[in-house]
Amino acid sequence: MKLSKSSLLILITYFFIFFLPSILISFFNLGKYYIPIQTLDYLLGAVLLSTIALQTTELNSIEYGRKPFINAIFWGVIGLGLILLLQFIINLLTIASGASTTSQNTQTLLTLAKTNSFFIFAITIGAPIMEELVFRKVLFGNLSNLLGWNNTNLGLVITALISSLAFAFMHSDGHIILYASIGLLFCWLYNRTGRIQTSMITHMLMNSLIAISAIFMK
């Protein structure tokens, strides 16, 4: 499967998966099953998107120089420390500006994880895999190739900004700078090793901290 076709298919599948729980609940009155439905939906979505990505016969320019898989694990773990440092700095700047550091998105995830332990699998596995394939692989790596910007640093910067802003707005809770900065760091990690698994690992570890926090805050 060519890069353009797989990219479009990943985007279409992602939005279908994203809205499917709401559609099912609206049409079949399954409100009380929302969390199990969303969890299963996210896990199946991760499998579907991964399958599409694996069927792609072309590599984008970032993946041409990919490092051994051990590098993805190493930088994936290092990435968690970088994410925590980044969040700490941005939170300090947010407090200095007089704004609130509370993230409604994070609070919602904590609440759901505390009351529905099954939802932890959606947070730590499903969502990170899907979001990295969509926002980093497609909207950063693949898009730079499809637009012919893959041979310039400026092109990669532009697509990194596009993907990171899209990532931030999909988590729209008023903390655009925080989420966009996290998105840029994920792009850097992906570019650092040429393997999307790098940013996936960091994303999974970051979300796992949210889930662990929810468990110990019971």
TrEMBL record:
Which of UniProt's keywords are assigned here?
A: Hydrolase, Membrane, Protease, Transmembrane, Transmembrane helix
The family assignment reads: Belongs to the UPF0177 family.
Q: Which Pfam families match?
A: Rce1-like
Question: What PANTHER family does this protein map onto?
Answer: ABORTIVE INFECTION PROTEIN, SLR1288 PROTEIN
What name does this protein carry? CAAX amino terminal protease self-immunity family protein
Does the record carry Ribosomal protein as a key word?
Answer: no
Domain CAAX prenyl protease 2/Lysostaphin resistance protein A-like: start-end pairs: 117-208
The superkingdom listed in its UniProt entry is Bacteria
Q: What are its GO biological-process terms?
A: CAAX-box protein maturation; proteolysis
> For this protein, what is any one GO molecular function term?
endopeptidase activity
Q: Does the keyword Electron transport apply?
A: no
Q: Which residues cross the membrane?
A: 7-30, 42-60, 72-96, 116-135, 147-170, 176-193
Xref: InterPro entries: CAAX_protease (IPR052710), Rce1/LyrA-like_dom (IPR003675)
